[in-house]
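Anyone up for a design puzzle?
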C-alpha cells in the first residue's frame, strides 16, 4: 500500500481541543483507520509543524477523502507527501537500467 507523510499544524481550536483532551490524538487515529488509513508512526515536531505522521492508504483517493474530512473540522491544517521506501527506489533504478540494457 502507498505510504504518505502528513505534516499537520494545529489551529487555535485544535490546540484547545488537544489541551482539554490529549487522548483525542488516539481517537483521530482510530477514525482514520475507519476511513481506510493506517497510522504507522506519529511524532511531535518542534518547528513550523506540530505533528508528523507516516500513514498507509489503499490509494490516493482514500487519503484525499480522509484529509478533506480532517481539514474541514477546523482543528488542523495539513500538507501531505507521497513517499517511497529507499529499497523500492533502488529496485526501480535497477529495473530502469535493465530496460535500457545497462547494469546499475
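Challenge accepted. My sequence:
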Amino acid at each position: 500500500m502507498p505510504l504518505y507523510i502528513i505534516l499537520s499544524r494545529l489551529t487555535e481550536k485544535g490546540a484547545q481541543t488537544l489541551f482539554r483532551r490529549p487522548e483525542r490524538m488516539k481517537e483521530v487515529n482510530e477514525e482514520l483507520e475507519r476511513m481506510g488509513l493506517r497510522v504507522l508512526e506519529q511524532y511531535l515536531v518542534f518547528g513550523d509543524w506540530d505533528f508528523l505522521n507516516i500513514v498507509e492508504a489503499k490509494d490516493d483517493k482514500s487519503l484525499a477523502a480522509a484529509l478533506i474530512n480532517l481539514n474541514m473540522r477546523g482543528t488542523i491544517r495539513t500538507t501531505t507527501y507521497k513517499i517511497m521506501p529507499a529499497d523500492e527506489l533502488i529496485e526501480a533504478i535497477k529495473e530502469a537500467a535493465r530496460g535500457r540494457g545497462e547494469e546499475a
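A detail worth pointing out: The longest helix spans residues 86-99.
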